[in-house]
């Protein structure tokens, strides 16, 4: 498999939480999103808000694949919908 890098703009509502509950929420945040695929086993993602260049909202992490199945990730509590949607668009199945 050839390495792939997909960069795109998206809009998503975001929330930040801790064990005490939700700390901050913002609706319709304009994001710059990158989803990269290294091979059949690994990839990565990075998202940040366009307005502040990632000062307000930023997340990155790794993706784990078993062939075309997403089997794990690391870097944030829940994988952002914009990342999941791009993976599905590319033919990956969300097995989480």
- Uncertain segments of ≥5 residues (pLDDT<50)? none
Question: Which range best describes the helical content: under 10%, 10-25%, 25-40%, 40-55%, 55-70% or over 70%?
Answer: under 10%
Beta-sheet strand percentage?
over 45%
The succession of helices and strands, N to C, reads EEEEEHE
How many individual helices?
Answer: 1
For the termini, the CA-CA separation is: 23 Å
Structural class assignment: mainly beta
Q: What is the number of domains?
A: 1
Largest sheet data: 6 strands, mixed
Radius of gyration: 14 Å
Note the topology.
Blueprint: E1 4-18, E2 21-37, E3 42-49, E4 58-66, E5 69-74, H1 81-89, E6 93-94
Parallel strand pairs: 5-6
Antiparallel strand pairs: 1-2, 2-3, 3-4, 4-5
Description:
By secondary structure, the chain is mainly beta. It has one domain (4-94). Helix content is 9%, strand content 59%. It contains 1 helix and 6 strands. It has one helix at residues 81-89, and strands at residues 4-18, 21-37, 42-49, 58-66, 69-74, 93-94. It has a 6-stranded mixed β-sheet with strand order 1-2-3-4-5-6, covered by helices on one side. Strand 3 (42-49) and strand 4 (58-66) form a beta hairpin. The chain is globular, with a radius of gyration of 14 Å. The two termini are 23 Å apart. The model has no long low-confidence stretch (mean pLDDT 93).
Entry keywords:
single chain, 96 residues, mainly beta, 6-stranded mixed beta sheet, 1 helix, 6 strands
Short description:
The chain is mainly beta.
